[in-house]
Amino acid sequence: MKDLLDMACLAYYQDGSPILTDAQFDRLAELHNYYNVGYTPTDGVRHTYQMYSLQKCFDILQPPFPVLGDDVVCSPKLDGAAVALTYINGQLTQALTRGDGTHGRDILDKMKYIAPHVTALGGIVQITGEVVAPDSIENARNYAAGSLNLKDLEEFASRSVYFYVYGIETDGSQCGDTWEQQMNYLKEDGFNTVHTHVTNGFPTDGLVYRINDTYDFNAMGHTAKHPRGAFALKEQQDGVVTTLNDVVWQVGKSGVVSPVALLEPVKIGDATISRATLHNLDYIRELNLEIGCSVEIIRSGEIIPRVVRRV
User: Fold this and answer.
1) Same-domain pairing of 119 and 252
2) 77 annotated active-site
3) Helix boundaries (H) for 101-152
4) pTM of the entire structure?
5) Do both 213 and 122 map to the same domain?
6) What is the pLDDT of residue 168?
7) pLDDT tens for residues 250-288?
8) Tens digit of pLDDT for each residue in 172-196?
9) Inside any domain, residue 223
10) Three-point CA angle 157, 158, 160, nearest 5°
11) Could you tell me if 185 and 264 lie in one domain?
12) CA 70 to chain centre
């Protein structure tokens, strides 16, 4: 299972062509205690400041910290490709993909088209945000991430992609005592931000809750992967339990032979499901599947039925 999730991370963060949907990845990661996020690029450049991922919450009634009160802010979680920009003495000098959070791939030549070249802030500043495409574009997230892989700069310049800021790290230069003040400052400095600009029309995959006061946020610290003062509220896709009646093998268009679960027919949404993919033999072994056992099924992306666990 780890190999499958590692492959899913690589496809999602590097290629922009996910092999699992967010709902499916989240469910499998939760079931199998998988905590890796991102990938380590072979041509990686070190980030000026580590890019942390957000811990996930699927129930707003059980948040990692209280969300009621004036000191917590909420913003949309845009679904695109995370990018970090470094400015030194006001000049844009580095732009990297997220990678594994410590190293990313150099995309400075592309980000110069969609991000300000200068900032009024002095010293060393890292500004993080999301490259997104309008949700009117089919597979908008893949379109945005794939744009960062283009070799043709003219083609990149012609694409409908935008950069929205959600975070800033500095070496001491101050642009506000709260996250809202920081976002307002960056707006005046020429940046689009998730707080000050309309994000309707762009794909999202949840909400972000964050401690507004920067001192309190920093005082809460970080785990190895996540800030303790922020989390992403995501919708968990509900699964349906049915019985695994049999397994058959089918040959795909590429010639790859893969197993398919034959299921006791069950209704998911507006569809009756009787078959679901099982990926490969290792996947079957990892889930410890046997003929006659109960399994949980989800419709990945509301289309593709998948077995996610043995019940």
Assistant:
1) no
2) yes
3) 108-111, 140-147
4) 0.70
5) yes
6) 96
7) 887 667 788 899 999 988 766 788 998 888 888 888 888
8) 777 899 999 999 999 999 999 999 8
9) yes
10) 100
11) no
12) 27
